[in-house]
Write a structure and sequence with these properties.
It is a single chain. By secondary structure, this protein is of the alpha/beta class. The chain has 3 domains: 16-212 and 376-455, Metallo-beta-lactamase, Chain A; 217-365, Metallo-hydrolase/oxidoreductase (Rossmann fold), CATH 3.40.50; 468-564, Ubiquitin-like (UB roll), CATH 3.10.20.580. The protein has 16 helices and 25 strands. An 8-stranded mixed beta sheet has the order 7-6-5-3-2-1-19-20. A 6-stranded mixed beta sheet has the order 8-9-10-11-12-18. A hairpin with an 8-residue loop joins strand 19 and strand 20. The longest helix has 20 residues, at 533-552.
Length: 565
């Protein structure tokens, strides 16, 4: 299905604008803005982990310039749950001046507090705790919540009454009849809102390629039972630090097999500590193994839950796979379970970690070898069920790569939503709702596109790395660089020194002395007296670039350095 282009048919002002700033056409950095007049409401503000092409980048956050430029108009921020792709960017926006109240369930708020405290921003944020039964009035928005089954306890979706009508945003969800926490997605609320009339549904598209429904989380316990019953030594399980439902499952099964549980990885330790404090995990902190006990106790008594299910370079499991973890050493007889499927773009890191774990002598189980993971997202049958419950007039698929959005849109049409009522958007593409034809009925149309790209976080720098820098880093990683130093007399332009050539990542200079000499000759041929420094630099750059391409078929980065003395 082609992307819908519904041209504005009047100059009437919209009652509501839907502005996605992240999460459409990509996995991660979910962020949605609702705009009604001079009022903005934000739903989630997440991050995305860098792809292999983003050399040196730590994380990616949404470009929220549209919001920051109107920060005094933000009435509130609603967080649906505590996964990084939904809350990970918010502290950066608080640092940029966002002061609107932030609404979240207790566990989500607890995880956010850790982030804000680390960045010394906790005093700047106004945090308000909500439950799935609360109603929040942020005129002109009236917000209700519904509990959702996801891989995070206390996840919620939102129902927002706006000047244009009722909007339902599912966030991440699935319909699970036997969830770990015993609380299924609240279908009764969804059905009630569907009966009252839903103008627009925005729904998670992550598993749009998966036919049927997602298996119940309870089915994973069968695998965990078998692993812990058969493993001769320690069992180490890697999962997302915020997947606290999975953590509770591991604790439950470990108890039945007479094993004690320990946590490894800073984010895992912090999240578990907060979850225990708030009553979301059925375990006491003094029951957890210390690092020393994880090493000294008999292996058949030990289970270790660690970060690193995606092969993240600095995570605990990756460090163990490389044999350089400070406290734990993998050994023969250990069983490692990677309880996740690789996020698109992470396959290389994931596979490298699996190989390294095998090299350490561990028995490794991952998604290709067994049912070691259950998705927190519904499949196509779950999506159809959401349509049955809410019966929306309009639909916008969210949270997914572009193919996921298209497939979800097709499913909506198959269910019965007209094609011109389905909008496939990418970040920055907006939809407006209003009475554009002069009738009482609210209509939808494509709105103005706004800037909504990536903002790269590299160390302490936020947004100072752009596409040009990433292009240079890619070139350096692939071809290396050559520095050519030439000193000239500032009065008569005579060459005083050089050309001297220094290379890194291009060739090994000690073994390529003849090549370097010929490169110097190529530069010498283009140097002329009284040539301005800027022109001389361009001549050197062209000469060395052409020489490297001609001689060995490479295009290194060339950095000419002309010094006037």
């Amino acid at each position: 299905m082609a992307k819908q282009e519904k041209k504005p048919n009047s100059t009437a002002a919209p009652l509501l604008r839907i502005i996605p700033l992240g999460g459409l056409g990509e996995i991660g950095k979910n962020m949605l803005v609702l705009e009604a007049g001079d009022n903005l409401l934000i739903v989630d503000a997440g991050l995305m982990f860098p792809t292999s092409e983003m050399h040196g980048i730590d994380i990616v956050i949404p470009d929220a310039a549209y919001v920051i430029d109107r920060v005094d108009k933000v009435r509130g921020v609603v967080l649906t749950h505590g996964h990084e792709d939904h809350i990970g960017a918010l502290s950066y926006f608080v640092e940029q001046g966002l002061r609107a109240p932030i609404y979240a369930t207790a566990l989500t708020q607890g995880l956010l507090e850790v982030k804000l405290r680390e960045q010394k921003l906790l005093a700047e944020a106004e945090l308000r705790t909500i439950t799935a039964d609360d109603v929040v009035e942020l005129s002109p928005f009236n917000i209700e919540f519904f509990h959702t089954t996801h891989s995070f306890p206390d996840s919620v979706g939102v129902c927002i009454m706006t000047p244009a009508g009722r909007i339902v945003h599912t966030s991440d969800y699935r319909f699970d009849p036997t969830p770990v926490d015993g609380r299924p997605t609240e279908e009764d609320k969804l059905r009630k809102w569907g009966d009252a009339g839903v103008l627009l549904l925005l729904a998670d598209s992550t598993n749009a390629e998966h036919m049927g429904s997602t298996a119940s989380e309870a089915t994973l316990e069968t695998t965990l039972e078998a692993v812990m019953g058969e493993a001769p030594g320690r069992v180490l399980l890697a999962t997302f630090a915020s997947n606290l439902g999975r953590v509770q499952q591991v604790i439950n099964v470990a108890r039945r097999h007479g094993r004690r549980v320990g946590m490894v990885g800073r984010s895992m330790v912090n999240n578990v500590r907060i979850a225990i404090k708030l009553g979301y995990l059925d375990i006491k902190e003094d029951e957890l193994l210390t690092a020393g006990e994880m090493e000294s106790l008999p292996g058949h008594e030990v289970v270790i839950i660690a970060t690193g299910s995606q092969g993240e370079p600095t995570s605990a499991m990756v460090r163990m796979s490389m044999g350089d973890h400070r406290q734990l050493v993998l050994r023969e007889g250990d069983t490692v379970v990677l309880s996740a499927t690789p996020i698109p773009g992470n396959e290389e890191l994931f596979n490298r970690t699996v190989d390294n774990l095998f090299r350490q002598g561990a028995n490794v189980l991952y998604h290709e070898l067994g049912k070691v993971h259950v998705s927190g997202h519904g499949g196509q049958e779950d999506y159809l069920r959401m349509f049955d419950l809410t019966r929306p007039q309009y639909f916008i698929p969210v949270h997914g790569e572009y193919r996921h959005l298209v497939l979800h849109a097709r499913l909506a049409q198959r269910w019965g939503i007209p094609q011109d009522h389905v909008f496939i958007l990418e970040d920055g593409e907006t939809v407006e709702f209003g009475r554009f034809s002069g009738k009482d009925e609210v209509e939808a149309r494509n709105g103005e596109k706004i800037e909504a790209g990536h903002v790269y976080v590299d160390g302490l720098g936020v947004g100072d790395i752009g596409n040009v820098v990433l292009r240079d880093r890619r070139q350096l990683s692939q071809e290396g660089f050559i520095v050519c130093i030439v000193a000239v007399d500032e009065y008569d332009g005579e060459i005083i020194y050089g050309p001297e050539i220094i290379s890194r990542g291009f060739v090994y200079m000690r073994e390529q002395e003849d090549l370097i000499r010929r490169a110097q000759e190529a530069v010498s041929k283009v140097i002329k007296k009284k040539m301005p420094a800027s022109i001389l630099e361009n001549k050197i750059k062209d000469a060395l670039g052409n020489f490297a391409s001609r001689e060995i078929g490479r295009r290194p980065m060339v950095l000419p350095l002309v010094i006037e003395m």
